[in-house]
């Protein structure tokens, strides 16, 4: 029974024999997938460089990250359907072309606003491109080869996550042609053009013979509700939480209610709803959606504050931060492989529960070493916590989708898996917004912590420099005000008035002392805010582990094609 049509099918409607160039086509789509995943991780390493060069404030930096995942979620919602209806090769080519154009715009961005807009566009094009990769794999390779191919796909994603951390550091430190961070985006231009040309000749077109209809109204309502929730969370702290931020957040609940009502109406009338609401009648799916969202809220927030802590807090170079962060990716790759091949077939959902708790344990260990060593922490002390964190992460992400889909009817599995992918992106965006409120809010409110840490050394250096005792007290008082104002400043590149050099006699001797101790005070504050953010992550991950008890005890990968063949129904792919 054939569920997909291919360009070049004969008059009887039967699909042509296996494409002898299918492995070359695989390399092409994997290059595109690698490019997407590389951009997801590489940006985390270069955020401080972008912030400094574009004079972006903290909120704008959050949007550089969140804009990509929101754009990805917006198109991922319906990207699979577009490929089924209009052709997967066609949508893949459009996605790669758009991603390449968006990367160019990111690389030449003249300000934070342009970069944020280009990142949203880039994420949207990735959301159109990525679903086609899996669909092309599905229709190009027979079932006996598909497992091997999907394993290769997983390996490519894992290697891209490691490469992104390292390549980002290398490119920024190399400062090619004095472009600083821009090559991380511009490097996609030749890769994207090459993928476009190769895909045009070697990837075969395919469509679904039973493609579902688009639900554009549902997409607009869903994206509106998501933006009404995420936007005020990201902007509220910097604006001191005006009334409209709470109005928007409350209004998002109403919009989601409208989405539910519309999807019920569409199910009764037109059919092909964006969200199959009957899925939520299954407890395992509903609980799984909740814990999946919470999991990505915890991890999305971690990835943002982690790089800020290492570079803005500890003063590390992008290269050092990237190489240190590779320990997380190595742990994640090991956890993912063992989860699928060893643990899940034997102990089922205990793999997921153990993974969430190991992730929390890794966070707790990171808190310990960060607090113990303070701003002087060496890279090697982070390796063990990062490996444990990554290993727990891998134990969760690899089998989680199979666990949530265990009791989902086969005919709805495509819609359910697409919904999970979208939920992941939204969870990451929420995580970035929520941790921004916590991290930057604490950085400003508890600035005295860093000042208290360095005051004894500051006083001693001022006395050694010949400052009289009464003058030392005045300088320390002004120093405290400077650190507070700098911590509360949304743009870390801006120098507050309280931090401007003094013109009084002897200031040339005092200013270097204040600058050095000020940097140390800020480092102490970053360490404490990072610790607090990780405790927040630990709490969420414990809730995730508890919620996983609602998942089925046994977790198995499903052969949905075989199930649908037995039902005599076509395969449903995409959302």
Automatic annotation (TrEMBL):
Q: Name one Pfam family in it.
A: MFS_1
Lineage runs: Bacteria, Bacillati, Actinomycetota, Actinomycetes, Kitasatosporales
**In terms of domain of life, where is this protein from?**
Bacteria
The annotated topology with respect to the bilayer is:
Multi-pass membrane protein
Family matches, as SUPFAM superfamilies? MFS general substrate transporter
Q: Where are the transmembrane segments?
A: 23-47, 59-79, 91-110, 116-137, 149-172, 184-203, 210-231, 243-263, 284-309, 321-343, 350-370, 382-405, 426-444, 533-551
- Nucleotide-binding listed as a keyword: no
Q: What is this protein called?
A: MFS transporter
Give the species: Streptomyces noboritoensis
**Looking at the keywords, is Transmembrane helix present?**
yes
Alphabetical keyword list? Antibiotic resistance, Cell membrane, Membrane, Transmembrane, Transmembrane helix, Transport
Q: Where is the Major facilitator superfamily (MFS) profile domain?
A: 25-556
């Amino acid at each position: 029974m054939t569920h997909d049509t291919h360009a070049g099918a004969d008059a009887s409607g039967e699909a042509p024999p296996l494409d002898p160039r299918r492995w070359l086509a695989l390399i092409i789509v994997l290059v595109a997938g690698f490019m997407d995943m590389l951009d997801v991780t590489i940006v985390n390493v270069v955020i401080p460089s972008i912030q400094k060069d574009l004079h972006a404030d903290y909120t704008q930096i959050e949007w550089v990250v969140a804009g990509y995942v929101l754009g990805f979620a917006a198109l991922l919602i319906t990207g699979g359907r577009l490929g089924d209806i209009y052709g997967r090769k066609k949508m893949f080519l459009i996605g790669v072309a758009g991603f390449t154009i968006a990367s160019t715009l990111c690389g030449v961005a003249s300000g934070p606003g342009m970069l944020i807009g280009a990142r949203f566009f880039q994420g949207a094009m990735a959301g159109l491109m990525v679903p086609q990769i899996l669909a092309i794999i599905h229709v190009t390779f027979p079932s006996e080869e598909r497992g091997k191919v999907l394993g290769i796909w997983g390996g490519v994603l894992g290697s891209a996550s490691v490469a992104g951390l390292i390549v980002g550091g290398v490119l920024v430190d190399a400062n090619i042609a004095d472009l600083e961070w821009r090559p991380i985006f511009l490097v996609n231009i030749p890769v994207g053009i090459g993928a476009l040309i190769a895909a045009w000749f070697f990837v075969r077109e395919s469509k679904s013979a039973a493609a579902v209809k688009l639900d554009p109204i549902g997409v607009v309502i869903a994206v509106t509700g998501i933006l009404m929730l995420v936007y005020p969370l990201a902007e509220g702290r910097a604006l001191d939480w005006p009334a409209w931020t709470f109005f928007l957040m409350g209004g998002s609940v109403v919009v989601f209610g409208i989405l539910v009502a519309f999807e019920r109406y569409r199910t009764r009338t037109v059919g092909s709803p964006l969200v199959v609401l009957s899925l939520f009648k299954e407890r395992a799916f509903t609980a799984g959606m909740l814990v999946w969202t919470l999991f990505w809220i915890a991890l999305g927030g971690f990835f943002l504050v982690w790089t800020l802590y290492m570079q803005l807090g500890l003063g590390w170079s992008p290269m050092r931060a990237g190489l240190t962060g590779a320990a997380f990716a190595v742990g994640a790759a090991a956890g993912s492989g063992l989860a699928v091949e060893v643990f899940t077939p034997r102990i089922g959902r205990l793999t997921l529960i153990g993974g969430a708790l190991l992730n929390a344990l890794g966070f707790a260990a990171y808190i310990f070493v960060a607090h113990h060593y303070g701003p002087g922490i060496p890279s090697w002390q982070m390796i063990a916590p990062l490996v444990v964190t990554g290993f727990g992460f891998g134990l969760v992400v690899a089998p989680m989708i199979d666990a949530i889909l265990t009791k989902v009817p086969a005919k709805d599995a495509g819609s359910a898996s697409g919904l999970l992918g979208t939920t992941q992106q939204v969870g990451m965006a929420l995580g970035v917004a929520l941790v921004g409120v916590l991290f930057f809010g604490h950085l400003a409110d508890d600035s005295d912590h860093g000042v208290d840490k360095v005051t004894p050394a500051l006083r001693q250096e001022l006395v050694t420099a010949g400052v009289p005792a009464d003058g030392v007290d005045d300088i320390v008082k002004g120093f405290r005000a400077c650190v507070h104002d700098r911590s509360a400043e949304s743009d870390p590149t801006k120098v507050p008035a309280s931090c401007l050099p003094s013109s009084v006699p002897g200031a040339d001797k005092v200013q270097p002392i204040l600058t050095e101790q000020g940097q140390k005070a800020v480092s102490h504050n970053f360490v404490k805010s990072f610790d607090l953010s990780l405790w927040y992550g630990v709490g969420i991950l414990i809730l995730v582990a508890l919620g996983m008890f609602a998942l089925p005890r046994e977790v198995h990968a499903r052969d949905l094609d075989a199930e649908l063949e037995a039902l005599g129904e076509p395969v449903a792919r995409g959302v």
